[in-house]
Amino acid sequence: MPPNRNFTIADIAVDAQGNIWSLDGSSPTQSDSVIVISPGGNVLAHFALSLNTLHAYGCFLLNNEFYIVFGSVNPTYPSSVVQIGFSGNQAFVQTVTPFPNNDNMDVASCVPGIPQIILSNPEDPERNSEITISPNPSTDFVRIKIPEAAFNKASVCVFDYSGKLILHRTLKNRSEQMDLTKLANGLYYLIVDSNNKRVMKKIEKIY
Fold first, then answer.
1. What is the three-class DSSP state of 13?
2. Which of 37, 45, 88, 118 has its CA 20 to 30 A from that of 128?
3. Taking the CB of residue 81, how many other CB atoms lie within 10 A of it?
4. Is residue 86 within 8 Å of residue 93, measured between CB atoms?
5. Which H/E stretch holds residue 175?
6. How does pLDDT run across 175-187, given as a tens digit for each residue?
């Protein structure tokens, strides 16, 4: 990923040639392009696309078409599967299909190719590199814990239910508290980015 750029979607899609398809932008929740990256890490293409990607939790390729899945919080395409079309160096929203997904936080992409078997070392720390956010609900503070294997250039954002950015800060330690005392009672979305990993959690602030 080029400097000062962010993947703006939780998951990626991979085509039959092993190229990565995703969205990127200067803000974690505002895309300005579809990006295609080769297996070697080279950027193959950018297709201009301005899109609010709050709660865009996945994308996939199907029959050579590119789709994005949005959860209920996205202000433009809530609970929808959006097909993206391409023309020259531009991308555009082609079709929108309602998708009552109950905010499941993952989708899968399947393409023709040779099956691969991935063997994981049970001692590999990446197997347990989950970022945790607690307590939830919270009356005042939430603690963000990032395992050592996943901690690098970490940041956290809090958005309200409409998608407005409320809080943003850089995390200097693997375990830090975020002060929620000034927030009104209600539901929020907290996004943690660290070491090219992204975790998005729905959190509730209560009195």
1. strand
2. 37
3. 20
4. no
5. strand 175-179
6. 999 999 999 998 8
